[in-house]
Design goal:
Protein name: Sulfate/molybdate ABC transporter ATP-binding protein
CATH topology of the largest domain: Rossmann fold
Structural class: alpha+beta
Number of strands: 18
Shape: elongated
Domain ABC transporter: 3-246
GO molecular function: ATP binding
Bound molecules: adenosine-5'-triphosphate
Keywords: ATP-binding, Nucleotide-binding, Sulfate transport, Translocase, Transport
Helix content: 25-40%
Radius of gyration: 25 Å
CATH architecture of the largest domain: 3-Layer(aba) Sandwich
CATH superfamily of the largest domain: P-loop containing nucleotide triphosphate hydrolases
CATH class of the largest domain: Alpha Beta
Strand order of the largest sheet: 6-7-8-3-9-10
Order of helices and strands: EEEHEEEHHHEHEHEEHHEEEEEEHEE
Number of helices: 9
Length: 342
């Protein structure tokens, strides 16, 4: 295991930010800490980084107890949403900075043969890193002459320069527009497949976590709701919170389930199916999204089906339909109603 978090708790005054957090992250894994704002994701990341101390519990990094180590002794690299690069230094200098500090606290004259060798080694390393983050052609620019996405890639190159055993990213693409975010997340996945550094990133965007991460830790109100692969979380959510956070959910009687996991019939064939009336039908691309009023339930049921299917059923506003969960549907009981999982 690369990172072992055991029994970590953190309070701010009376407020419990983290409560008995236990998580093991294997070496080389790309993990997402996912959850709503204020849930405690950043606090946990900062405790792993050593930027914050836990009140209780321990953090182990690569087999060594890091609980009391300062950040610079943990061999972690980090990137935050608004990452501060050195504005007056070129892209290449920004990447070289950490390496130069490590070699003799900077490479100032007088020059010795050793310093010259270090300088060459660093230049070589910087070139490799810039290639890795696709910024080679911008090596001599200043950070202000880069786009937001390019600046975040520069931040990643800087964090990777000192070969951290763990890379920690706090909403690294948070401030960027949707298209650039998407590009960077694909790029991060590919980068990770190339360099395999154990990486933990914080996000509140479920799509980002589902697309990029090997494993997702869902955190809400200071507690872990579930840990699993994207498929496990999507197909076997531990509770209605996880289910609702990872995708669209609708209620059908005592169950919360996905709108595309509801079977629509135009006759009462299925035992226990719920009768209803189509109130709205919205075409979105290749899908048809139906809003169905059902008896005994205040909020309508949302059903998503393919347009071809909707056409075959000859559905229109006011059609009577019978709804039931499809076979193998992912569903969880809605707690307030005390139903059972299927
Ligand atoms: N220094 C602090 N003093 C007091 N409360 C704090 C402090 N830092 C964090 N908190 C509180 O702890 C809770 C968890 O914060 P944290 O930043 O970990 O959440 P988060 O899940 O990362 O949210 P976001 O996605 O909004 O960054 C929040 O309610 C926050 O207000």
């Amino acid at each position: 295991m690369s990172i072992e978090v055991r029994g970590v708790g953190k309070r701010y005054g009376d407020f419990v930010a983290l409560d008995d957090i236990n998580v093991s992250l294997p070496t080389g894994q790309l993990t997402a800490l996912l959850g709503p704002s204020g849930g405690g994701k950043s606090t946990l990341l900062r405790i792993i980084a050593g930027l914050e101390t836990a009140d209780t519990g321990s953090v182990e990094i690569e087999g060594a107890d890091a609980t009391k180590l300062p950040p610079q002794k943990r061999n972690v690299g980090f990137v935050f949403q608004h990452y501060a690069v050195f504005k007056h230094m070129s892209v290449a200098k920004n990447v070289a900075f950490g390496l130069e500090i490590r070699a003799h606290g900077g490479l100032r004259p007088p020059w010795t043969p050793q310093k010259r060798r270090d300088k060459e080694r660093i230049a070589q390393k910087v070139a490799e890193l810039l290639e890795l983050v696709h910024l080679s052609q911008f090596a001599h620019r200043l950070p202000s002459q880069l786009s937001g996405g390019q600046r975040q890639r520069l931040a990643l190159a800087r964090a990777l320069a000192v070969e951290p055993s763990v890379l920690l990213l706090d909403e690294p693409f948070g401030a960027l527009d949707a298209k650039v975010r998407k590009e960077l997340r694909d790029w991060l996945r590919r980068l990770h497949d190339e360099v395999h550094v154990t990486t933990v990133f914080v996000t509140h965007d479920q799509e980002e976590a589902l697309e990029v991460a090997d494993e997702i830790v869902v955190i809400n109100e200071g507690r872990i709701e579930q840990i699993g692969t994207p498929d496990q979380l999507y197909d076997e959510p531990a509770n209605d919170f996880v289910m609702g956070f990872l995708g669209e959910v609708t209620r059908l009687g005592p169950l919360a389930l996905r709108p595309h996991d509801i079977e629509v019939a135009v006759a009462p064939g299925v035992v226990g199916s719920t009768p209803g009336v189509v109130r709205r039908a919205l075409r979105v691309g290749f899908e048809m999204r139906l809003t169905v009023d059902v008896e005994g339930q205040a909020e309508p049921v949302l059903v998503v089906l393919s347009r071809t299917h909707a056409r075959a059923l000859d559905l229109e506003l006011g059609s009577r339909v019978w709804l039931s969960p499809t076979t193998g549907a992912t569903a969880v009981a809605v707690p307030a109603l005390g139903g059972v999982s299927v």
